[in-house]
Amino acid sequence: MTPATTGTDGQFDPRLPAAPDTIAVYTDLNCSFAHVAVHRLHETRRRLGLEGRLWFDLRAFPLELFNREVNARPGVDSEISVLGALEPGAGWRLWQGPDWAYPVTTLPALEAVHAAKAQGWHASEQLDRALRRAFWAENRCISQRHVILDVAAETGAVDVAALAEAFDSGTARPAIMAQYESARDGRVDCSPHLFLHDGTDSANPGITAHWVNGGFGVGYPVIDEDRPEVYDKLLTHAATLL
C-alpha cells in the first residue's frame, strides 16, 4: 500500500495514493480540523453510496514533529466549541481527566492506524475514526498501548492480536516517518490535506479561519468560511477516476 504514482509533471510524487479508488488524507489525530474532515469524508461517502468503492488512506501529519513540541491542550480546548459547532455529530467533549492523563504524543496511535492497513483499508479507516472519537469524545489517552488496543477491539473490524504483533515489532514506524518526510517543506500544507490519484488536492477542505487575541494555545479560532459541499465535489470527482 505504498504510493507509487506520479504527479502532473511525470515525476514520482509520494503524496498521491497508489490507486484511483483511494484518497490520501494527511492528518493528525489530535487536530480538531482533521476531526471535522474525517467525519465529513465518512458521512459524504456514505451519503453518495460510495462505500466499498472509495477508500481513505490515512497518512501521518504529526504536529508534534513539525512544531517540535506537544500539541498544547489550551489550543486544542479553545477549538472544541468552535469546530464542534460545525459538526457536532463527530463527537466532542472538553478534557475531563486529570492533566497527567492527557495524551502527550499521537505517534503510537498513528503507527497503529498504519499497521492496520495490512488488514485492509476498512480496518485502518475504522481504527482511525475510533481513535479520534476516543480522544475527542471519550477523553481517553490514545498515547497508551493498552488504550489503542482496547479501541481497536471495540471497532469489531480489527484483528487485535495481529495489530499488537505489528505494533510491538515497530514495523509501522518507518512508514510514519516517510509520510512525515513527504509532507515537509510545504509539500503538505496542514492537517488535514487531501490528495486524489490524479493530483487534485485540497487543504482543510471548505474551511478558512483566523485566530483572535493570539495564536494557537493563546487565542481562539474564528471560522471565516465553511463550505461542507466541497466534500461532495471531491468524492464525486474521485469516483470519476475509477
UniProtKB/TrEMBL annotation:
SUPFAM superfamilies: Thioredoxin-like (SSF52833). Pfam families: DSBA. Residues 22-197 form the DSBA-like thioredoxin domain. InterPro entries: DSBA-like_thioredoxin_dom (IPR001853), Thioredoxin-like_sf (IPR036249). This is DsbA family protein.
